Amino acid sequence: MGSIRAATGIGPETSRCMLTVAGMDCSSCADAVEKSLRQVDGVRGVRVDVVAGRVEIAYAADIVAPPELARVITRAGYPTTARATATDAGGGGSRPLVLVVAAGTLWALSLASDHLLGGGRLAAAFAVAAMVAGGWYIVPRGIRAARSRALDMNFLMSIAALGALVIGEYQEAASALFLFAVAQLLESRSMDRARNAIRALMRVSPAAATVIREGGEQRVPAGAVRVGEVVVVRPGEKVPVDGVIVAGRSSIDQATITGESMPVEREPGGAVFAGTLNGEGALEVRSTRAASDTTIARIMDAVETAQASRAPSQTFVERFARIYTPLVVLAALGVSVLPPLLGAGTWTEWFYRALVLLVVACPCALVISTPVTVVSALAGAARRGILIKGGLHLENAGRATVVALDKTGTLTAGQPHVVEVVTFDDATERDVVGLAIAVEARSTHPLARALTRYAAAQGVPAAAAADMTAAAGLGVMGTVAGRRVQVGSARHFTRSAPLSAAVTGVLERFDRAGHTGVLVGVGDGHDAAPRVRGAIALADRARPGAAAALRDLRAAGITRIIMLTGDTEATGRAVAAELGPQGIDEVRAGLLPHDKVAAIEALRRGGARVLMVGDGVNDAPALAAADVGVAMGTAGSDVALETADIALMADDLGKLGETVRFARKAERIIRVNIAFALLTKAAFVLLAVAGVATLWMAVLADMGASLIVIANGLRALRV
Ligand code: ADP
Ligand code: MG
User: Fold this and answer.
1) Which of 448, 460, 508, 651 has the fewest CB within 10 Å, making it most exposed?
2) What letters, b where the CB count within 10 A reaches 16 and e where it falls short, cover 466-492?
3) What is the pLDDT averaged over residues 482-510?
4) For residue 567, which ligand has an atom nearest its CA?
5) Closest ligand 1 atom to 567 CA
6) What is the pLDDT of residue 285?
């Protein structure tokens, strides 16, 4: 949760807390809560999440404490419970319901007595009683908001109702307040439904685990399993921990994490994730991570943080609302005085129109339109194994036009295999391979792993190496038996000395075959330039399904697909050729990590919106340079999970098209929502000024628009 700190630049002595706030269903409420908190001494940052019904507060613990903060929020009119819980009822429970029913009954009685008895005191008395019941929560909130100088809807509604009462429109006043109370109740109920739907989607970890302790099995809360303990997972049970299988084999459905329901086979030594579903075999799993630190816990954390961050559309909408509301209130003032002064109609008539404008000034549907969609979309995506780290990235992915992909490990399976080892001078193949894997020991590069696998298959032991360093996009270096050993691309070597004709010839031959050449060199002294002792050819194939995945990306609306690789042009082209005519438009080869960054920056300057896909480990700079950086196969890799804007849990290119499509759909829903909310508002401003709209119509329209916008936003859960 670093974003509050980042936003306000607050120091390390700041504490933070999360409070659950009930009945906060509109951003003007959020404004009221935020303003009331900001006036408190010691409060350093406030982030209100309307959709989740939560407030995150950064505060100086020596000045103020959470109970005091909770009281401030409660005093602003929103019941608070410390710490987010799953059971908050949002709207404040049954009391508002009783009051709304009472207001409705009284209002009906007032209407009836008006009709039957022809107005008079009784009808007025019922109407006033209806106003009291309907305004029970609204008016006090409005007063509090006015005191913290927030133009909130409760305040505007209260003024409108009071104004109607003043000009004798007591039934209008009663109906407006009653309908508004109904609207608030309905909105808060439907926001609760939305919250629950989202929460249910995210609730995947099992609550209990069967752990082996003191020689027997014990049922304990999943959170109580300690790292290193062994849990028993029966067939059909959910795995309660992140861990490694110590006994048993089974197929595991990892859909909760990767979004792929195709089960994966796991045997002793294999990793499993908390929240995934065990298949037919019984397993014993040694826990490798604390419950708060499992992959699924990190995903949920990331989604929560993402949901609280603001999407650009939301920022736009909120900025708009901040201008819109005062503007309409000003217009209402103008409407109430100017036309009658100019002799166009009576004071009462224009005063009434002004009151309708006050109701129209509430931007409720507009403000809720974006967050409700973004939050649903982020939750829906997470359930498909697509972790989008914020509304900004969702919108950027939805607008991407160009996709750039790293070659090794992204377009290719990252499982290259050795096809040939050429030696020079008196070196043997065993020497060359043994030296190579010695200095590659710490590297996680796919080529390093390929060499290690090859050595194991050939029974070549690794020599002992020291001082290993890696040069990103070039290779590695280290010291073996006092001699400098260097492993990597031709470029890694030509930096110190030119290559011999023999070596160049071999590399060209590898190149023509589309193979990646890795040179192994040994320096005589510690500083001498390394002499090439061997050249290893590795072949890497495009992933199965990669061609289809790229076609799918185009179908999702991507117009240009570019391969970025540190490998040679010929090798890049060989992989591109495998991907078919619909695959790669352009191969850019021989790129060092900073060249990839430059390539992406150039594309962006050219007006493209670039989505960069990589493994998130050695191409992090390029991911960061793109409009949106996507890392693949991140379940289990913390680095990738942290660095990418979007993390695909599964190691599956097919998720890319799905991601883009998902983001576009969410983007469309956001646009429709904003447009719809703006249009209803615009229409009602006109109708109000023209004198066609009544108070209750305006309230009804606002309620209808809010409900529609919420329902539409929820569609983003299931695109
Ligand atoms: P890509 O852009 O295709 O993912 P990289 O930028 O990771 O490729 O690497 C570019 C080239 O640098 C590789 O083709 C290889 O020749 C060399 N290289 C990088 N890292 C290593 C390593 N650990 N061992 C051997 N060669 C390496
Ligand atoms: Mg790479």
Assistant:
1) 508
2) eebebbebbbbbbbbeeebbbbbbbbb
3) 92
4) 1
5) 14
6) 96
CA separation for the pair 349, 671 (Å, rounded): 37
| CA distance linking residue 56 with residue 43, whole number of Å | 11
* Residue reference for tokens 């995150």: 56
More confident position, 84 or 331: 331
> Ligand 2 (ion): which residues have CB within 5 A?
406, 408
What sign does the CA torsion over 37, 42, 46, 50 have? negative
The atom of ligand 1 lying closest to the CA of 568 is: 14
Residue 558, phi-psi category: left (phi > 0), alpha (psi -120 to 50), beta (remainder): beta
Amino acid present at 679: L
- List 537's β-bridge partners, or say none: 420, 517
540 CA distance to ligand 1 middle (Å): 12
Q: What's the pLDDT score for residue 150?
A: 73
* Angle, alpha carbons 430-431-435 (nearest 5°): 115
244: phi then psi, degrees, rounded to nearest 5? -120, 135
Residue 27 or 197, more confident = 197
Ligand 1 neighbours, Cβ below 6 Å, are 406-408, 440, 443, 445, 447-448, 473-476, 487-489, 516, 518, 565-567, 618
Taking the C-alpha atoms of residue 634 and residue 640, their distance in angstroms, rounded to an integer, is 6
3-state secondary structure 384-446: CCEEECCHHHHHHHHHCCEEEEEHHHHHECCCCEEEEEEECCCCCHHHHHHHHHHHHCCCCCH
Instruction: For 296-312, give the DSSP string.
Output: HHHHHHHHHHHHHSPPH
Q: How far, in Å, is the centroid of ligand 2 from the Cα of 439?
A: 19
Of 180-194, 437-451, 644-658, 703-717, the poorest mean pLDDT is in 180-194
Which residue's alpha carbon is at the smallest distance from atom 26 of ligand 1? 488
Ligand located closest to 404 CA: 1
What percent of the chain stands above pLDDT 90? 41
* Bigger pLDDT: 403 vs 363: 403
Other C-beta atoms closer than 10 Å to the C-beta of 165 total 18
Report the separation in Å between the CA atom of 472 and the middle of ligand 1, taken as the mean of its atom positions. 7
Answer left, alpha or beta for residue 120, where phi above 0 means left and psi between -120 and 50 means alpha. Answer: left
The DSSP secondary structure of 319-384, one letter per residue, reads HHHHHHHHHHHHHHHHHHHHHHHTTSS-HHHHHHHHHHHHHHT--HHHHHHHHHHHHHHHHHHHHT
User: Among positive and negative, which fits the CA dihedral 93, 96, 100, 106?
Assistant: positive
State mean pLDDT over 388-411. 93
Among 474, 404, 406, 446, residue whose Cα is nearest residue 626: 404
Residues 6+ positions from 402 with CB-CB distance below 8 Å: 558, 559, 560, 561, 562, 603, 608, 609, 610, 611
What tokens does 77 get?
Answer: 């009119």
Does residue 406 carry a catalytic annotation?
yes
Among 410, 411, 489, residue to substitute to test ligand 1 (most atoms within 8 Å of Cβ) = 489
Ranges of beta strands (E only) in 530-668 are 531-539, 560-564, 586-588, 610-614, 628-632, 646-648
Three-state DSSP class for 76?
coil
Question: Ligand 1 centroid vs 516 CA: distance in angstroms?
Answer: 9
Sign of CA dihedral 581, 584, 588, 592: negative
Report, as an integer, the average pLDDT of 192-199: 74
On whether the CB atoms of residues 669 and 369 are closer than 8 A, the answer is: no
- Mapped onto helix, strand or coil, the DSSP state of residue 563 is strand
Helix (H) or strand (E) holding 279, with range, is none
- Whether the CB-CB separation of 314 and 391 falls below 8 Å is answered with yes
Q: If pLDDT is split at 50, 70 and 90, which confidence band does 6 have?
A: very low
Spacing, Cα 613 to ligand 2 middle (Å): 10
d(CA 173, CA 103): 12
339 alpha-carbon distance from chain centroid: 50
pTM of structure = 0.80
Q: What is the pLDDT of residues 10-56, one digit of tens each?
A: 344 677 788 888 777 665 677 778 888 888 888 888 888 777 778 88
